[in-house]
Amino acid sequence: MGDIDGQHLAFRKRLAAAFIAPFACHRWRSLRARSYWVRLEGWQDSILGPLSSIANHGACEYVYARDDGLFSGIDRPQALRQRLLLSHGKLADAVERFKPTTPSQVVDLAFLRRLVLDIRELIERGCDIEQARWDAAGRAGS
Predict the structure, then answer these.
(1) How far apart are CA 3 and CA 6, in angstroms?
(2) Structural contact between residues 8 and 58, judged by C-beta atoms closer than 8 angstroms
(3) Taking each helix axis from N to C terminus, what angle separates 2-19 and 41-57, rounded to the nearest 10 degrees?
(4) Could you tell me the CA-to-CA distances from 8 to 52, 90, 101, 125, 134 in Å, in that order?
(5) Could you list the pLDDT tens digit for every one of the 142 residues in the chain?
(6) Residue 41 · residue 95 · CB < 8 Å
(7) Fewest Cβ atoms closer than 10 Å to its Cβ: which of 54, 62, 88, 105?
């Protein structure tokens, strides 16, 4: 149990670094890039919700019960992974559409790209945690 707790703590810290620190700690070089990242909040939230639940509660069971535009058809961890990766792809595409016009914006774009990579790793890690929980509950065939 202690190892799992340590894993969740590390996951929580990385999650905060990717989703909270950009506003609380990052020194943005341009208001335009910061505003652009804020406009992508919907994609960020669609990823953050399940990952935050995994980090803070050890699971994201609420996703499987939802039947709405965001989580319809999500009935097991593999489907969750696919949906999160789809959202991540849209977020990554949106970041690549940002066209810097100043050196400061070039620096901020590099930061956004790092965030996108970090978020991809968090999706993989979070879904691995969720799959392990699912399997431990004897739902492997579900």
Answers:
(1) 5
(2) yes
(3) 160
(4) 10, 27, 40, 10, 16
(5) 444 566 778 888 888 888 887 777 788 999 999 999 999 999 999 999 999 999 988 888 889 988 888 888 899 999 999 999 999 999 999 999 999 999 999 999 999 999 999 999 999 999 999 999 999 988 765 5
(6) no
(7) 62
Tracing tokens 């097991």 back to the chain, one arrives at 76
Alpha helices, DSSP H only, in 20-138? 21-24, 31-39, 41-57, 61-65, 77-97, 103-136
* Alpha-carbon gap, residue 142 to 125, rounded angstroms: 21
> Which helix H or strand E contains 3, and what residues bound it?
helix 2-19
Other CB atoms closer than 10 Å to residue 118's CB: what's the count? 15
Both tokens of 87, joined, read 């959202």
Tokens at residue 10, please?
Answer: 């590390």
Q: How far is it, in rounded angstroms, from Cα 122 to Cα 16?
A: 11
Q: Can you say whether the dihedral through the CA atoms of 26, 32, 36, 39 is positive or negative?
A: positive
CB count within 10 Å of CB 17 equals 16
